[in-house]
Amino acid sequence: MKLISSVGARILSVLVLTSTLASGALAHDYKAGTLQIAHPWTRATPQGAPVAGGYTAIENTGDQPDRLIGGSFSASSGFSIHQMSNQDGVMKMAPVQGGLEIPAHGKVELSPSSFHLMFTGLEQQLKPNQSIDGTLVFEKAGTVSVKFKVEAIGAKQPAEADHSNH
In the chain, where are the structural domains located? Predict the structure, then answer.
């Protein structure tokens, strides 16, 4: 009997550990209706910086488009959606009017040199490894609570996308 109990306890321990690791790996992804939001993140900022950018990937697995129309970032007073574009060799940034469409069966990447979120009126310095509360507001899927992981100042992608330390 003790052998069975010991083997059973070991199997249970392995199952619990495996499930804990799997849930930790997915803890930074979010789902709202047909939208999947992957790894929201931002960059660390120098002391006194007034703005920061926010990035993520949003996939729509549904048959109808949705639209990112707003949100919030708990460490700032302002939130908007912007786009970077190259005009005659000069990078320019402008607000996206009317929200950002997430096409049916499509994916939109919010990244440093393309569409991104702007957090204005920063109320604190953002430091690596912090997790900042925020929301993303969609026309159809509604408000989704997320956490933005703070990466290094020069990060080009979130550490989760690297997978070298998994």
Answer: 29-157
| Rounded (10°) CA dihedral 155, 77, 108, 61 | 120
Confidence band for 12, pLDDT divided at 50, 70 and 90: very low
pLDDT exceeds cutoff 50 at 97? yes
Instruction: Find tokens 């953002």 and name the residue.
Output: 126
Mean pLDDT of 24-49: 89
The count of other CB atoms within 10 Å of the CB of residue 115 is 17
Cα 75 to Cα 142: distance, rounded to the nearest angstrom: 21
In CATH, the number for domain 29-157 is: 2.60.40.1890
Look at residues 98, 107, 99 and name the one whose alpha carbon lies nearest to residue 37.
107
Dihedral (CA of 22, 27, 28, 33) sign: positive
Q: Helix, strand, or coil here: 24?
A: helix
Record the tokens describing residue 96, joined without a space.
Answer: 């996206």
Considering all CA atoms of the chain, what is the largest pairwise distance in Å, rounded to the nearest integer?
A: 78
pLDDT at 25 over 60: no
